[in-house]
Design brief:
Elements lengths: L2 E3 L2 H23 L4 H22 L2 E4 L3 E5 L3 E6 L3 E6 L3 E5 L3 E5 L6 H11 L16 H10 L4 H18 L8 E4 L1 H20 L1
Antiparallel strand pairs: 1-2, 2-3, 3-4, 4-8, 5-6, 6-7
Helix pairs in contact: 1-2, 2-6
Amino acid sequence: MKESYRSRTAFALAWVWLAFVAFNVWDLIAHYTGKSSLVALAVLGALTALVYAIALRPATVFTEEGLVGRNPFRTTFLPWASIDDVTVSHSINVHHGDERVLRLWTPMSSARERAKAQRRGAPRQQRGRFTTEPTLSRSEQAAVEAFAGKTHADWVGDQIRERAEAARRRDEQAAPARVTWSYDSIAVLVAAIALVVAAIVVA
């Protein structure tokens, strides 16, 4: 079973952009005016290629066999047992064989999100004699404690570390990473470049 982690905000905004582009492409084709319409299509195409590469494609995927890091133009597969360590700063950094590091594009933690997580993890001071906040159930309290002081990136980093340790305990083979190019991103980029070239030629 696969588990995918993305930047929810970037993913949602990317789909809003695609809807905006679809409407504008229809309008430009329906009311085609020559050079100006082609230039507008080229601009939309270039921006859409950028949005696809940095907002829609990046994902961190957990599979039974290992970790899949989908970055804008490359996909890296790491068997769980080949992961040596995981550190989290702004991004999740997965350390593997020969001191190599895979930097995952998602989820990332901003300075604002980290500050918010630290405030959430700090003990609250009760003011007054009466409790005004609702009492949490045991499971809810356990979830709050598990996420206390942690961002989403910290939590995903912990999950990667736990799976890697479990794989090593099972004596799974630490196979090398497999890296492949993202042909879908390359195709979108080539299409955008073709539109730009066409707009320049017509101009």
